[in-house]
Amino acid sequence: NIPAYFCFSGYGGVQNAVVDAMTRNKTITFYHFEPDMFHLQYEGYLTRIALPRAQPKIVATATGTFSENGYDWLLTPPSHPLTCVDRSYGNPTTNPINVDFSAEKLKFYFSNVLDSDTFLVRFLNNFQLAQIDINSLLATLVKLSNNHAITNAPFTAACKWVKENYNIWKSWVDPLPLCTLKAHMQYKMMGCNDSSRMITFLWSVPDPTNASLPYQCDGGTTSLPSPLSTSRSCDWLNSNVDQWTPWLRSKPLCDRMFYNYSVAACDASATRAVGFFWLLPQLANPLLSVECTGGVALPSNTTVQCDYVPTNSSAYAAMSGFAIIVLLLLICGTLLIVIFRERPVIKRAQWPLLVTMIFGGICICIYVLLGAGVPSSGLCATRPIMVIFGFTLIFGSLLVKGLRVYWVFENKSLKKVTVSLWKIAKLLFIMLCIDSVILLAWMVADFPAPTTETKAATEFVGQVDHISCHSSSFIFSAILIFWKAIITLGGVYVSFLIRHAGSDFQESVWIFASSCVVLLVALVLLPLVYAADLPPATAYLFQSTLLLVGTLAVMGLMLGPKFYRLNAQDKSSASTKDRKGSGSTTRTASIVNSRRTLSTKGSASQIQNK
Predict the structure, then answer these.
(1) Does residue 401 sit in the same domain as residue 544?
(2) 359 and 219, same domain (yes or no)
(3) What are phi and psi of 95, to 5 degrees?
(4) Could you tell me which residue ranges the G-protein coupled receptors family 3 profile domain spans (predicted)?
(5) Domain enclosing residue 372, as ranges
(6) Angle at Cα 65 formed by Cα 59 and Cα 66, nearest 5°?
(7) Mind listing the pLDDT tens digit for each residue in 4-23?
(8) Are 292 and 251 in contact (CB under 8 A)?
């Protein structure tokens, strides 16, 4: 029990009274809470009075009351800080406590709103400061407060303490997770519309003072990966994050996904150069890739066959030269036939049909000349038209000429038979009309347009675009082949029947021989076109050679004997005399073992009994 009256002047009043007493070198007794900056500001000037030691059983009896029966009011105006202007005497307190104040733990309160932040709640629950730590903080704050250059002394003092006392406060916060790319980093892709992509990385929550450091993780991948260059598309990268993220640590093994190839246009050798290259080659060594290592090596460059014969190739130069020579020969043959059309050997062979047959040969030459070059709509339409009409004009002329001979020489009644040019021309015209109808239906219903199709290459692992004249169905080609087969077989059969029919120029033999040539060419050409798998240049050489040689053979067989017998026929015709004064002139030709003669007058053939 201390026989004293206690003046209550408030916390600030007590401190002012103590400072005033120190200033006047007086003594004052007061009670105060510590730790407090006041004790550190005047360290060495204050002495703690030792009261009886606090005992837990006595502390537990405290009622928490003080001066409930009255106490002194101490008013301390600035002019008289220690003067009690109003004194009210009280009676002793009823609180039985009679020991020193016990130490109390620091308490703090926070709103329930913070419960939503688990991380912050755990931090506050773990927060704990010992008195020595508080004293250290307050001592630093006192020193900094006297430094007017520091604008925020409390923050500076706290920051200094945190930097120097990691071992104390590290237990307040939960350990940060290990840094991982998936959880704590973001990536950005650049160049999605270019040939390569660049992936850069940044922290999802970077350190405010250093963006290259993480703020929500510690350990693990603590540094940002270097930018990644890749040839994969942005869509692939977004869909396969787990596949390419290991590439940040080590490059993947090279496979065919890391290189590409280019197929050049057709060159003069009728081949296309195939060049292989890494999608991202090293600048110093293009044979190595930037984005992969080991694995497969870059394939060697190679070539593939063209789908067509280039117009600057040696094969086309040879065949076009050959076709032009044949074309000039055919034109010369046409001129000779027209010039000598009145000669009996030409006239009896019905020279318009010979000219028609030569026009068919000209169509074949044009077909050969159009057989090279990049497929286009014009070429895809003109090529079949030329070869179809060329075949019909040649073989159709042979067929109707064979029918003419057959009708004349197979006349069993030995009566006069007239086979006019118009009659056999109508047959040829009908065949041409059938060709035209089939071709027109083909061009309208299923035009053989130039079509590009991607197929697997045989020379290397990859695909190549192939361009060709393509129809969706084979039906029209099949109809034309069937129709030409009927004409061919019919013509060969007719020429076989008349092979022994004779005249002074033996045209039936040449018709049969020419028909056999056409049949042979057709039998060789069909499998070559539809069955054999030859390089385009080789196929073009074989096809063109067959067509041109066959055309020359047919024209030679049909025109050669006639040109050879031009003068001989003139001499035979000059010896013809008027018979029995009738005044009429008749050109006759003997028929072996027969009494029939073939008389040619104008454009008609007549058989008369002699």
Answers:
(1) yes
(2) no
(3) -70, 120
(4) 322-582
(5) 335-571+588-609
(6) 105
(7) 666 677 788 888 889 988 99
(8) yes
Q: In this predicted model, what pLDDT tens digit does every residue of 259-300 receive, in sequence order?
A: 999 999 898 888 899 999 999 999 999 999 999 998 889 999
Whether residue 594 lies inside any domain: the answer is yes
Over the Cα atoms of the chain, what is R_g? 59
User: CA 493, 499, 502 angle in degrees (round to 5)?
Assistant: 145
CB 278 within 8 A of CB 258: yes
Nearest Cα to 545, choosing from 310, 239, 300, 321? 321
Question: 86-94, long-range: CB within 8 Å, 24+ apart, which pairs?
Answer: 87/5, 89/5, 90/5, 92/1, 93/65, 93/66, 93/67, 93/68, 93/69, 94/63, 94/65, 94/68, 94/69
Distance CA 71, CA 75 (A): 13
pLDDT at residue 608, rounded to an integer: 33
- Give 121's contacts (C-beta < 8 A, 6+ positions apart): 114, 115
CB-based contacts of 86, cutoff 8 Å, min separation 6: 73, 75
For the chain, give the longest Cα–Cα distance: 193
422 and 545 fall within a common domain? yes
Same structural domain for residues 119 and 232? no
Report how many domains make up the chain: 3
Backbone angles phi, psi at 436, to 5 degrees: -65, -40
Confidence of residue 587 (pLDDT cuts 50, 70, 90): very low
d(CA 323, CA 541): 12
Share of the chain above pLDDT 70, in %: 84
Query: Rounded CA gap, 46 and 456, in Å?
Result: 98
* Residue 191 token pair: 């160049």
Predicted confidence band of residue 58 (pLDDT cuts 50, 70, 90): confident
Alpha-carbon span 262 to 17, nearest angstrom: 96
What pLDDT is attached to residue 575? 42
Here the tokens at position 207 are 């350190």
Burial of 194 (0-12, 13-18, 19+ CB in 10 A): exposed
- To 5 degrees, how large is the angle CA 262–CA 266–CA 268? 135
pLDDT single digits (tens) 346-390: 877 778 888 888 999 999 999 999 989 899 999 999 999 999 998
Q: What pLDDT digit, counting tens, does each position of 137-194 carry? A: 998 998 898 888 888 999 999 999 999 999 888 888 888 889 998 899 999 999 888 8
Quote the pLDDT of residue 568.
58
Domain shared by 183 and 164, yes or no: no
Is 448 part of a structural domain of the chain? yes
CA distances from 293 to 156, 228, 244, 255, 298 (A): 53, 15, 14, 9, 11
Mind listing the pLDDT tens digit for each residue in 221-266?
Answer: 889 999 999 999 999 999 999 999 999 989 999 999 999 999 998 9
The reply to whether 524 and 592 lie within a common domain is yes
CATH number at residue 443: 1.20.1070
Both tokens of 216, joined, read 């929500």
Tokens 């590439």, located at residue: 247
One domain for residues 454 and 555: yes
* Residue 83 scores a pLDDT above 70: no
Residue 62 region by backbone torsions, left for phi larger than 0, else alpha for psi between -120 and 50, else beta? beta
Residue 101 lies in a domain: no
Q: For position 473, what pLDDT does the model report?
A: 85
- Out of 225, 249, 273, pick the residue that ends a domain: 249
pTM equals 0.60
Instruction: Let me know: does 548 contact 562? Beta carbons within 8 Å.
Output: no
